[in-house]
Queue: 4 jobs
Job 1
Amino acid sequence: MNRVLIAEDLYLLRDGLVHLLQAHGFTVVAAVESGPELLKGLLELRPDVSIVDVRLPPTFTDEGLQAALAARKQIPGLPVLVLSQHVEQLYARELLADGSGGIGYLLKDRVFNAEQFVDAVRRVAEGGTAMDPEVIAKLLARNARNEPLAALTPREREVLEAMAEGRSNAAISQRLFLSESAVAKHTASIFAKLGLAPSDDDNRRVLAVLAYLDSR
Amino acid sequence: MLRRYGQITALLVLGVVQAVVLALSVPMLLLAFMLGVVLLFPWQVRMVRRLAELNRRLVREWTGLEVESPYLPAPPPPVPEPNGMYRSERTLYKTPRVPAWNNRWKWMVKDPATWRDDLWLLLDPMVKVSLLPVFAVIPERALLMYAHWTDLLLGATVASRLAGQVSHLRRTRNLATDSQAAEMRRIERDLHDGTQARLVAIGMTLGAVEQLVDTDPQAAKALLTKARESSAETLTELRRVIRGIHPPVLAERGLADAVRALAMDSPLQVTVTVDLPERPESPVEAAVYFAVSELLSNAARHGDASTAAVDISSHGADLRVTVTDDGLGGADPAKGSGLNGIERRLLAFDGVLALNSPPGGPTTVTLDLPGVLPHEPADKLPRGKAIAIALLWCTAWCPSFPQGVVPAIFKIFGVEEKSWFLALHVPEPWQWPVIFAMIAVGGTMYVMAHHLRANHESRHLPTKLGC
């Protein structure tokens, strides 16, 4: 669960990521710098998790994203964490479209906080999701006038945000200084208000919430 | 029918006025160019132009044939030199009067339209007389024939259209460079006040860390946290600036997906339809993107809308964008909303913005950018038509001038010479009818040649560059 592939064209950042991940016990199986190399690496090496920059040579458009999507089409659920200088709901939607999890989409700034970043990498490697808070904020802003969402209490909204980012109940309770049972109570209430079927599986729960927010 | 006859009568009365103007013009021109009474020339030009303009207007109102003014744009007023004097060639003047007059003189003399007007003034009364029988029998068609004749001498030529386009392009280029310079200043300000200042602060914090790291590691650690937060903020700020210059999603995905991304970020329920055969050029994409972004945020902010629709489609080489929302309506560009900014941005592409926003809604904004998409050129003239037009142009002079106008002048001034002028060889009572028939034949040939080409262009060039 710790073979990782890195695709990033800036040498400094690539090198930094390699060191950071090695320091946290990951094995870097490949560090590539272009779209075609990335696709080849993803399909041949099947890393436990890949960290992919959206914009890669040769075209410097969305090579990385396209390669990740293409690889996941052939190997469903191949865990990929996409990094970018900017986040777009459009890209988040494309990444989440197959509904199979193992997806992360974060701003490059999040690398600054090594603990949280490595936590996100682990979550994606285990088939979970890691969505950037900015994506979630945009999703929620778009749904601001929605009836069921407007009915949530401020606390429930905070829990929903953390949950949509892909955090487990334990992580949410730590972040919001709540007991785990309180978090469980909040999630049950949120699911009831949004009309979603409750689920004990953290993963499926997150995907359901994201799908709900995205469908609007 | 009766109205047509009334219009023809008016034309004939106008013909009398033309004769008077012609009678005035000839001595005025002779005095101006032979005896140097140059002051008379601008008066003569103004008089003829006014008459020609009246004729254009009447033709337009009666037949619907648009006769464009061919005149070159008037010269700009003289600008004083640094010492307050006005220069005209090598002479300096204290007041702008003389240089302005000189510029006007040059403008009028050099404009071919001035001399075409004069030619029209000379020929038009004769054309009217020779068309008299046609006017009497088929007034409707005759008026149309007369309209084409007017277009031939009073309409815009390729050269005058080009001149108009050049001055239009110069104006829009100035506007585009102005707005670009303003953009640059805004970006400079953003970078200077935001990013640069933050980076300075980070540098100072790191300097303090360097000093504290040995003596007070705890404080150094706190400062490092602050520096990291500060660098994250700088990145957020920089991201905002970059979005304002050229949105990354536009560079990565093109207009269609960039507008879809905009729609997702909007608090409104936005449906996006994009139907483009290929990607427009990148400046066009950027202009359209920023326009749609502004319109959507206007709808959300002022219009109290809940749904909106964006439609981007192509019509030949034209790009059309329609943004509709179900808000309160009553948008007014005069109130200084972003609409003016959008209009300025579009001007560089000859684009126009049409706003329909009745109070109570819905609001529809249409952006039209003519000729910005790659498109195959219009059909060429078929060979048969081209040969017919060339033949008509090459031969029409013969009946109209040597066989028409010249014998008429010979007869008026009583010249004995008959030469090869057919009209002067026929018996006396037939001479004038033959002369008018010749002019009518020549005129008709000119009109047909003109009509064939105009007809082809109107059918095959749906988009005319505005000027």
Job 2
Amino acid sequence: MSDLENNHIVRKNGKAVELKPLKTYEEKEKYELHGVEESAESFKLQRTITVVNGVGIIVGNIIGSGIFVSPKGVLENTGSAGMALIVWALCGIFSTIGALCYAELGTTILESGGDYAYILKIFGSLLAFLRLWIAVLIIYPTNQAIIALTFANYITFPFFETCLSPDVAVRLLAAVCIVILTWVNCKSVKWATTVQDLFTAAKLLALVVIIIAGFVEIFKGNATSLEVGRSMDAVGGKTADFSQIASAAYQGFFAYAGWNYLNFVTEEMINPYKNLPRAILISMPIVTIIYLLANIAYFAAMNPEELLASNAVAVTLGNRLLGVMAWVIPISVALSTFGGVNGSLLVSSRIFFVGARHGHMPESLALINLNNYTPVPALLVTSALSLLMLVTSDMYALINYVGFANWVWYGVAIAGQVYWRFKYPDLKRPIKLNILLPIFFCLVCIFILVLSFKSSPIECLTGTGITLSGIPVYFLFVYWEKRHPDWLHKIKSDVTKFIQKVCYALPQDTHED
Amino acid sequence: MGSPEKPIDVEMGDMNDETKQLNPDVKTDSELKEEDKEERFTGLKKEELMEIANQPHWVRARWALFIIFWIIWVAMLAGAIFIVVTAPKCKPEPTPQWYQDVVVYEAKVNEFAQNFKGMEDHLDYVSKSLFSKAVMVAGAGKESDPAAVTNNDDAGFESLVKTANDKEMKVMIDIPVDTLSTMHDNFAQSATAACASDASGMYCNFFVWKANGSTSNTDDYAEWVYNPDRMANYKVSKDSPNRAFLNYESPKAWEFVKMLVKSWFDRKVDGIQIRDVGHVQNIEPNKLVKDIWEKFYTNETSNEALFVYSSSPNPELNPVMLDVNNTNTGKSPMILSDHLSSHANLEAAGKMMRDAIEGWRNSTRQIGANLLTPLGGSLVETRFSNTSMGAALNLLSISIPGVPVIRSGDEVGASSPVLTWEEASDPDSAPVNSSNVVLNTVTAATVRKVEGIQAMQSLRYDTRNEDTKFSFIDTENNNVIAFHRKWDTKPAVLVVSNLSPSAQTVNVVSSSGLMDEKKPAQKAKVVVSSSAAFGDGDPVDLDKVNLPSGTTLILGA
């Protein structure tokens, strides 16, 4: 064990690294238990996220409700069970490559905020602001709202099995879910990561139940669509050509979305040099294998045609194979989505926080509560935006417009990684991938973008428009900030002071003690 | 996937010093600017905050906010629970008889797979590839007697029934009740019966006899044949001259038919299809059906099916009279009609089909059954010059209210009803003479109809209650039939079909059709289509749907 493992890395805005030894094992344990550092430390978000928490964040965010509800996007296009499984595996491997690129970026640029932080560092303020703009304004709030709605739908499922749950109750329960999880996140990072671990474990358990049920069926010999030689039979008369496999992969990549989430909280990880790549390397194979096995289980339980026709695949499987235990499935989906909302709140608040720290968001969002060491204002704002999305009816249209947008920024961030390889070849990189991997992943991003624009050009153009609408905002509120009139400065200062008093919060220390 | 140049588990011990100088020149302009900003934090310093924020009124204010937060949270939770508890429960799903909510596959044993063993081997095709959970078996010839139908392969039939039941499938048998083979012992008995002292219970009047010489007037479906033994004429079916018409005036004949039905139920079939009821002699067809129904089906514990087929047109069969209990989930005979295929490829096909469906629905609440090709008739593939008609008809017959009865061969677009199977093929693989387009259309629709999958439960069953909506859409185009189906809160579907001889464009935007936020929807997506020109999920403008001749689309929001 190297000396460093007993050390506590402290880092200031990516400018310097200082190691503070945690004197004794007991002390270290105490710090892990309470999530609060010694008072001698500088005031900032604490390093509490272990490698297990990291796995919980990645796995818990990738596995949302999709695998339970409609894993059919891939099958629809591939046309055969066997090809669908191949595409699922390929998407898993490609996403792992993306995650590894982020592992390199995350250990080279040791700052929270994920692609925002990397783009800021590599390409500067304007591009980074646009990334922030689309992420915090639309992507994360809608994402949280949609997962929360799925949660509410499934938690009420036992009461309304054969018809739709009442809309108002669903929205209220979604709000209840977002609000309680916001409180947990405000209260303690440790609590939030524990919730994340528990619910990730619950969803993995549910998937294991599904997988076992499916494999029992296979060993009984009932899974005809999986037999070798049959598995490539076309479903619905479609033999997949290249463009359809591409569309299938496009759907598959969305199922793996979330592999970058741990990079949003790098600054809060214990020993990120080791634990960030470790968590990524543990999580991605878990997710890929679980996805493959779950899909095999679905094919074992039903014909590909039935899978395509079902709008709640796991529920159909449960009703068929689990008998009296069928209720487990909707409850598991509810638990899974509850954990998903938690994870999303955890990371999205950090983007606000990091953005505010760099002056791209109101400075009050960069405040940390003095007692709990949590970014309370940022959490409250991301939560409030999600609640706002819950009451708008156009939420699904919004997510359609910007669904592809993340891929632009993954591509930009990883292109930046390649660019820095040439600009700063001697930069210390704890992880250094073969240069071909980031280049390959950039091509994957371009491929996904081309497909997005091809399949829904109007939505994508609208989404681009929404992103570009950030440019005037940037110049008005960020670039010309110094030229703001005094009265505006005064208002901003008063707002900050007010929020400080309400949230009992301070910005993090700017200098090492 | 390549491996990192350096092992991931890098030696970290030396990280300390080097990262401190993590490329000083990496500091970009934006970072320099930021440093500025950080110095200019406009809020309270730590000491100020400690002092002001710990003043009692700020402490109280934070407590108040904290309490309000929880009050709102509890209120939202309580509100949600209240709504869930008080919301009207889902309407109970109707529990139809098994034969009112099923897809039936009708096959002659010799055409489908030569014998019962072959049929048994390919049951998975019917069940898993077609999602049909009931097989209607017909004998090789037009037979009704068990010995003749099974061709003395009683063991094979028994095994078929058992295997099917193990697969949770039903087996039904098709028996003609209008005629009996002249090879049957009863015919010789009747031909040689001493009729002078005929009493009821004797064979003399078992068939329809007529003194020689008076054979001039006869029905168009029948003819007279001279029998030298009796020196009289007997009435036979024009299609099959070796079958003589039974005379239902004779108690012996009646008894024989009842015994026939019983002998099939003794063989554990789950249902019987009687035909050709329209041509039964000297009895009112409805009375025959009713008598059989009352004799065999009114027992509390029985749940067997009685399907009734009569060659089209069948004005004799009156659903109202057969409507035994005026509900749509109670036990009732199932009357088959083939009005769809008889109107296809004609001008104003849509209007005629609509009239036929409306006629049925207006006269009875009972569930009916739809069939494209009757046993012995030529398959849809060969009936129309336009080969896309077959898939379109199949899809429409599965999506209209009622139980679809698929004639073997129609579902694969075969031109001959004799199916050919690849040797050693898998149990659920399709016959070799399949048209994939037709088979896939049928499969895509039957999976939704039978499995009751939530997305399309509105297709599954026609309750005729307030919670079912079935409405025709006025397209002002007699060639096209369009209707909207919705069940309670399930997603609705819109079915549009052009079975006329020419291409049509229709506007199906309607307040009785698909809705989008309380307004008639302008766009929809293809759920199932009978034509390769429309892929699943393709968007369709509802104000101008272009339908080539022989196209059926199921559209959803």
Job 3
Amino acid sequence: MSLQPILVRSLARSCLQLTLAANFLLASQSNFSLQDTAGKTHTSSDLRQYKATVFIFVAIDCPNSNTYAPILARLYHEYSPRGVAFYNVYSDPSESADAVRKHDSDFLVPFPALLDTHQTLARQTGARSTPEAVILGPDAQELYRGRVDDRFVDFGKTRFHPTQDDLGEALDAILQGKPVPRPVTKVLGCAIPGLN
Amino acid sequence: MRNPIPLSLVLTLAGVGYAGTDKTTATPTFNRDVAPILYQNCSNCHRPGEVAPFALLTYDDAAKRAKQIAAITQERVMPPWKATPGYGEFLDERRLTEQQISTIRDWAMHGAPEGNPKEKPAPPTFTAGWMAGQPDQVIEMTKPYSVPAEGPDQFRCFVVPMNATEDEYVKTVEFRPGNAKIVHHAILFLDSSGEARKKETVPGQGYDCVGGPGLDISGALGGWAPGAEPATARPGIASTIKKGSDLVLQIHYHLDGKPEQDQSRLGLKFSKEPPTKGLTLYVLGNQKIDIPAGDSHYVVKSSGILPMDVEAIAVFPHAHYLAKDMKVDAHLPDGTAVPLIWIQDWDFNWQGAYRYASPVKLPKGTRLEMQYTYDNSAANPHNPSNPPQEVKFGEQTTNEMAFAFVSVTLDSPAQVPEFRAGTRAEFIAAMLENGVDEEALGPERAGQLKLLLNAFDKNHNGKIDPEERQAVVDFLIKRAQQQQHPAQQPPQR
């Protein structure tokens, strides 16, 4: 009887280790090859060129992700000179390259948009909503996954001023070689079709 | 919502019959069950060119968002409708039934099936352009107005000449946002004083106005929020536009992530006949607001007595970001309580006029009461100040307001001045019941009120007692009549 909790705990521990190992394996096997709207191919091996790579899952008709366009442009101008790459990722198969190109041009997006037509990247990173930001390191290790900031509180409820700039704080920590303070945060936005 | 038989009723009846015969296999499908709900309640805004960010017309539109639609309707975030059911009965109520909500939920839970193509309803048809038909006059912002990609919401008042050469009687008002992606709501004021024009330093580009147009308005033509249908006045009722008036169009812009432009329009239909009933606003409000920083439950109350018989046709509750609960009631002279509106989760972004399904009769002597509750704590995400600050009455985003604008009709247009004089007299009498608050009123107004108080405070206790009150009211009404008659009606400032 008294052994049981220990057994459970050790089982739990080995499960956790297994999951971590699996995650690591999955991450290190993270393997994508996607085209941007200009026809240029971007692959997982590009990750090695940067200290960190930010993927922002967005959608043309998601107001929540559209709101962030100027904020992300600012983050790009601040962090890209410091070795951080930025991509918009479109994972709704019904969004055409033309529509995406027009959208990102209208919203003055200064970095490339990847067409995740088969939702490969969304599945590999676990992104389920827009706007969900995923930061991967050079070895494809996940460093951050979640919101850009905390302005969205609930469906239809927006904070007057965001109080946490989660994505910016994560990038600051990564560039300083420190652990990300909140490596996973909750995203409030639009569901990526077919993955929820 | 204008069908002779509400579709929701048909659906409910159909649903009851269906559940009775075949309970186990009643998985809802898009074609049979969900599309009619969406077409009736959502597609009017959720279609290309309208305010909603995406369309809800096809199976694909809905299926890819099935779970989100289920969650948002369950929480009643959509369709947007803030009035508590059973607390006032309103026209064009944008509210799903419990049955409709559970149909959407069951459909989403079962993988959002499309269903039998034969059961697919015809897609809804919408009037292109003006919903109420071609207007007699279209009034457009004189120039496009540009907003940046991001930043705080903007509240802008645009002054548009209406070029009326004689008084005009408006039956139908339809506001069309020029750019539906950024226009969040609009309130339509009239100015016959010429003051508004002076405030617009660059013609056509408007001026900042968070709380209101910042002048003594000469009238109003209602408001617009997404989903609102054009309002047509009942027989005998019309809004009067005095000749030479300007439209002051207050627009709330919600920036959407890219630079945008707007040039909104207003369509008016006129009546040749002058109205047979009087139409005016009864303003219930309290400017004595001082909410301590951090106070999560600050209550503001106000009440007023109607000086004559009226019928309430609409109510427009107004506050800024901190209000959470707003309740307005009428207490009739016979003791009956009539609920006028109750909003339990006020959202500044979804304010608008609520029109009563049928006019609410409020006899002379009815006491109107309002009770608004505010949350000035850090836990309120709408709080514009972080950390919270002390908040007082005012027009800025960081100020608060407490108003209920009740649109009322009177038996004849000739009664409007008398009604206004009467409400003003009742308002002043109510103020004097607590003596004269010099600090709140400022020296000039306090001085005038003290003269009045001295004249009618027979027992010299420094305030007007109930038995002294009627004399004050009678005096003020008589004085207003005397001011009105000798010199016709003086032009407003």
Job 4
Amino acid sequence: MRSDRRLKDSNREKRIYAFRTILAALFVLGLTSALIIRLYDLQLVNHEHFQTLSDKNRMQLQPISPNRGLIYDRNGVLLADNKPIFSVVIIPEYSKNVDESIASIQEIIDITPEHIKRFKKRMRRSRRPYQSVILKSKLNEQEIARIEVRRHELKGIEIQAELARYYSMGSATAHSIGYVGRINEKELAAVDAKNYSATNYIGKLGVERFYESELHGVVGYQTVETNASNRVLRVLDRIAPTPGRNLTLHIDSGLQKKAVELLGAKRGAVVAIEPSTGGILTLVSTPSFDPNLFVTGIDYKSYSALRDSLDLPLFNRSLKGQYPPGSTIKPVLGLGGLDSGVTNRAFSIWDEGKYQLKNDERIYRDWKRQGHGRMNLFSSIAQSCDIYFYDLAFKMGVDNMSKYLGDFGFGQNTALDISEARDGLLPTREWKRALKGRAWYPGDSLNMGIGQGFMLSTPLQLATASAVMANRGRWVQPALLKLASVGDRPIRQRKIEMNDIQMINPEDWDYIIDAMSEVMHGKRGTARSSGRRASYRMAGKTGTAQVVGIKQGEKYDAEALSERNRDHALFIGFAPVINPKIAVAVIVENGGGGSTSAAPIARALFDEWILKLAASDKTESKE
Amino acid sequence: MNQDFLRQMPGAESHLKQSQGLAFRLHLDPILLGLLLVLCTIGLGILYSASGQSMVHVEKQLVRFGLAFFVMFVFAQLDPIVYKRWSPWLFGLGVLALVGVLVFGTGAKGAQRWLQLPGGLPRVQPSEFMKLVVPMMVAWFLSSRYLPPSLKAVLGALLLIFLPVLLIVKQPDLGTSILIAASGVFVLMFAGISWRLVAGFGALIAGFAPVMWMFFMREYQKQRVLTFLDPESDPLGSGWNIIQSKTAIGSGGLWGKGWLEGTQSQLDFLPESHTDFIIAVCAEEFGFMGVLGLLLLYLLIVFRGLYIAVKAQDSYGRILAGSLTLTFFVYIFVNIGMVSGILPVVGVPLPLVSYGGTSAVTLMAAFGVLMSIHTHRKMLSR
């Protein structure tokens, strides 16, 4: 090394070095300037842009769901409440491995494969980052406690509380109030997405669905500061949500419960209406189901059991069941016969048990084989004579019958706030030609005269017709909603123009209603056994509808068939005759005769309601 | 040494002589030491905020600084002659250790950087050690030859540089290999390599880059470069860091949001906020003026280093001091450049501010070498 050093030119080295050092200094200054220019650009030129980005990062506008309006019965009994439920949720972003997280919860509480399947399904749906996914809803206190104790070791697992609907009467109101369920994408597309941005539930059926916009309320917002993991650190600003409107229904929970009790294990429906207002006091269809199961999502097994049951518990018979009305339409036809002058009070026929049209070999029989003997309109209603009504129907013709039946609301859904109700079927010449491609035969009229044949009606329609009859032609649209708590928006309802029914001779009303009263209280009234020993007078009409064939979707089952081929029992009526307080329609599927299985139910409901009213009148007058 | 100064201020002569004498006897440069102490103090302040106001981090860092200053003091005591003599041996040891890392190394995140010493001795990171030893070795190699270096000498020097660099790239540790390559190249530059050679090698590197891309760079390193070119292409993945750091810097504005008030860093939007991305915290909380102040402090240190280099009395000390100083600057430039989005993300910490002990110790050791070169001058001139 020493030999090398001798060769070195120390001065030249120093000179070069000094020059290179100056270059190095310039290099340093140049690059530093580049950094400063960059910082200047970011911090001063584009400061606002990055300030906005930074605020966007930390501040989030979060929607707050409004509390759903509560639903009360007419006496203030809470039918639909909001109760906190607790769910165990997984936030996938916090969980290192979702499957491991599930496994760790499985060690603590019971998680079924069904839970996991549905969790995976929810995971696949689009969601915001850090949005939690429910694994199991409706935890009980023990489960909550177990999870809370081990929470520190459960990464990405949380217990989430939310308000969920609770129906205090369970299956008793499932077919009238309906229920809410988790909102799906299709439903979300149909509503104002902004207003539903924090909402988990939506009305699926019944009152919950019809009054969804009243019950829902208006979404609120809060501006929150969050950290990078989306944890809310503090609330910066808040606009409170407006809770949904509380609804009070016409439904009387006591009467509703009574109707459910009376129907018991039978398949059937009961609709009771307050004639003065059209308020629906009772709307029952049995068998029913527990709506609470549907709120947070029913498991597949329970659902398929309900869906596949031969008794169709999911089917709302009171609104969607379309039955031949049978003899229950006789009072309406009698009224039409009198009003149109086709018959009169004096006219009578001799009933031998059969009726035949000219040039027609077919024999139309009375339900009473040997016949009723001499019958006028009054006794024909009281004893439900078919021969008289064959004759009347022949004379009235289909057009006339359809007109009067239509005036009473048959053939359409006249309810103010029930959109699921079916229209039934009010046959006309045009209808038959269009659908069957055949002319209307006189024989069709005869069948229609006793409520058989083509005509179909729902229990709600029968109850409505009964209420209009009780009102002597004054129309009231049946409605579930009695009043809504204060709100600025008008309530959207199905207003239908129904004309009050005017009789040329108003006394015809009394005549027909007297005949209906004779059904209950007369010596030979078909429902006299149900009218006995009453402190008030009632009016009614029994009916029996033949069951034709086997309904589609039912499997052939000899034993079940014989039972299911029995006639449907029907009854319409109202009470008291003077100043009616309640009008009902009762149907018991395969119940046999209307007088034996439907009328007693109506009578029990009359008693329940009229005695209850009397009791409350007493306490009111005392006060 | 300061004869002119002393002549003008005769009254202060004894006092100055004494204080300078004390620093000199301890082989410390008071200016450099003062600047470094100021930097470390500021660094701890920023770290406290960047670590989410964690005293644990600050205390740990303080301990590391203590160790680092001790290492600096020890390194300052050694005569440059010692470094020069030991350079080839240390280099040989370092290369062996690097090979050892590749064979027996341990580490995290897919990179092997550590070597576990046997017999209960601590883990060491040979690549850190090489940050000092490579420039020493190249300086040793060149300073004993005729300068400016011949092509043969330059090729020899490049071999000495790229042997360890390639070993470190293999670990893989792109940040460290860049710093080491830079330190070696700086030695060549200070040694007076001719510009024609610089141009030639420049062209060679430009041609070599695609080969690097295809054969030597790992997938994540390529991803970093791609992300650098277009961070928005993957805003929640690898682009996240750079978008968040730019947002932090930009939202700081002229004067910043205030100490501990930076929302990007305090609310965890900024990743690696207390390590590699700490300058973004400084920029967010103290604004443009704050970063400018910090840059000024760094520049003062760099220029003091260059001054020491110029004043060095032999070519070994000169080119080593120059190289170490410029390498220090490269840390700053690469770090701030990557955090502000003008350079791809390579793992280079901000000297003496970023949390982490190893780089602090290495850096302070380098300053110890600088002080040694500066304060052993008289002995050399004798």
